[in-house]
Amino acid sequence: MTGRVSAVRLRALLDVDAVDRPGYRDIAERVRLLVIDGRLPSGTQLPSERDLTTALPVSRTTVTRAYAELREAGLLVSRRGSGSVVTLAHDAGASGMLAPADAGPGAIGWTVAASAAAPGVGLAYAQAAAALPAYLHQSGYVMTGVPALREALAARYTERGLPTDATQIMVTGGAVAALGLIARTLAVRGERVLCESPTYPNAIESVRRSGLRPVAVPLDEDCWHLPSFEATLRQAAPRLAYLIPDFHNPTGALMDAATRDALGAALTRARTTPVIDETMVELVLDGDDDAMPPPFAASAPDAITIGSASKSFWGGIRIGWVRASHDMVRLLVDTRHSADLGSPVFEQLVLVELLARRAEVLAEHRAALRRQRDELATLVTDRLPGWQFTVPPGGLSLWAQLPARVSSTLVIAAAREGLILTAGPRFFVGAGGERHLRLPFAREHDDLAEAVTRLARAYQRCRDRTDPPSTAAMHALTA
User: Fold this and answer.
1) How far is Cα 196 from Cα 219, in angstroms, rounded to an integer?
2) Which fold would CATH assign to domain 7-86?
3) CB atoms within 10 A of CB 4
4) pLDDT of residue 224
């Protein structure tokens, strides 16, 4: 996705009002962060130096030196008649998608909420290898998925209170792939998609790449404020609504049954198709499965539900799925023919084995995540006084509220400490996020302790403003 960013829009993205008398390196570092985390995609044309000087409370010399710093770092190309265009010499951040950081020696990459493989994943691979020969006489192209996996997924939905048969399941290459497929199938370029804000950054990017326009509904202290959703449905008439009701990413919140019923009814009245992301649903950390509310699709019959093995079991299992009506699955298959011919059979068989032992595998996995969540909560409380968060009942991260609007500044400072983070604004559809930071907790205690130690040092520098910007730190953001 490329285009041109206005001086007024760039000023809002830079958030320089949070900095007293910003210097050229302040501006250069903030632009660099916007490029690396995807808010300024490669190919975006920046405003002229004159226009940006008018928009910012700085001199023309300051803007000129900031652009020169970015050109020297390989992030900006300026040509007479074409202006200054964002560029990247390598792939880091170029796609706009949030991805694991290549943090480099001694650095800690804390950009992705994901865990090591759940106990039993290795055994599942061995069992899948033993089962694979039975499939080798076939072509391997299975558009809707291996029957055994579709049946296992349908059984799990039924067990959760949503009667489902195997023909309502289509296996995909992951949850993001499923979302893109749904968007291409159901919406026309330029149509709107309702999204919570904050939300999963790669979902925002997937919507935009499909030529659609995300429309934000801010989540408040109670998360899903029904009147706000109803107002947006009336005013924007979105074609789709992308929602994460189960251990919301990044907040970790869980939508209760009454809200599901009310919001499902509102979406039905508005003729907006819900796309429900359940990638975190199996990561119950407080209580048990019986305490979980019914799937959102039980409150909205036309909902399309997407799931994934990557969060529940392991990110290396690149298998997702869609649960929808029979007719919808057929439509999705028709669209999919232009993209791929199915998902890898071997990984599907791995997931079949894991689902057969789901309760056993997840019990141990959840216990480890619960311990890690509580350890991180204690570390943040002890080392970062003034930071606020609600301990999430599930999921993979804490969503911290900062005492000041310093998220982007803090991410830059943390890079100097060898801690690579994702700035809060990356999770927002529009403005916002400078008071927030996502802290993934799926790490062992020593790693969490070291990460929080580095974060606390970086935060202290932000408070003291005694650490001058450095070119080395700017390069750390691209590592």
Assistant:
1) 6
2) Arc Repressor Mutant, subunit A (1.10.10)
3) 11
4) 94
Q: Is the pLDDT of residue 139 over 60?
A: yes
> Cα angle vertex 208, ends 203, 213, to 5°?
105
- Residue 9 tokens, joined: 């829009």
Q: What is the DSSP string of 28-41?
A: HHHHHHHHHTTSS-
DSSP string, 431-472: S--TTEEEEE--S-HHHHHHHHHHHHHHHHHHHHT-S---HH
Q: 140-158 pLDDT, tens per residue?
A: 999 999 999 999 999 999 9
The pTM of the full predicted model, rounded to 2 decimals, is 0.84
List the chain domain ranges. 7-86, 108-118+360-476, 121-356
CATH assignment, 108-118+360-476: 3.90.1150.10
pLDDT digits (tens, 9 = 90+) for 2-41: 678 898 888 888 877 666 667 888 888 888 888 876 778 7
pLDDT of residue 20: 62
Domain 121-356 is found in CATH 3.40.640.10: yes
Residues 256 and 296: their CA atoms lie apart, in Å, by 10
Instruction: Give mean pLDDT, residues 196-205.
Output: 94
